[in-house]
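User: We ran a pulldown and think these components assemble together. Before we commit to crystallization trials, I'd like a predicted model of the whole complex to look at. Sequences follow.
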Amino acid sequence: GAVVSQHPSRVICKSGTSVKIECRSLDFQATTMFWYRQFPKQSLMLMATSNEGSKATYEQGVEKDKFLINHASLTLSTLTVTSAHPEDSSFYICSARNLAGAGETQYFGPGTRLLVL
Amino acid sequence: AQSVTQLGSHVSVSEGALVLLRCNYSSSVPPYLFWYVQYPNQGLQLLLKYTTGATLVKGINGFEAEFKKSETSFHLTKPSAHMSDAAEYFCAVRGSGGSNYKLTFGKGTLLTVNP
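Assistant: Here's a predicted model for the assembly, 232 residues in total across the polymer chains.
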């Protein structure tokens, strides 16, 4: 149980294009999903908290117009990197909080490797 | 506010030896504490967590951790390292209660296991 998937797992795009990453909770409902960014050999940096049916809450320093988040259902959140540039290349990881139970645990997706040329 | 310090960015042990990964935290409220493991190019997998109750928690793959409030620590141990334990380990904290579910991560400790 508590499986989170991400799609795609890897994506290469040209500078200036937009890329959408999907995060799905496969066997549970998640009112809250989180998007992280991880640079090589570094820890995870929280970008934003995504709540189903409402606007995402972005961390300080994260451009909300560049990283668009949509949480349209209890099992799906999407992150769109708009007008991507090489500095946006990174490993993006989502996590989901299980609505059932105490909900104190976040379950992580396998990550999406983005390379912007 | 919470913070996590993982002492030692790299720990190397021999196969069969004790594994000890250190984590100290600070939190203005009673904490929930987590250890996650990350294999190369993968997401994070929950090893174990402490919320309330017993301070010694057991997780998957033979790992365990003990919450010591007086020392603000949550060190991760395993009696005998296996080659498959080689990975990056992250300690994380969040405040208990309320509606703030954000995790604060440490910088990670890379565990290498030598044959």
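Chain B has a mean pLDDT of 92. That may be worth checking against your pulldown data before setting up trials.

User: Thanks, that helps.
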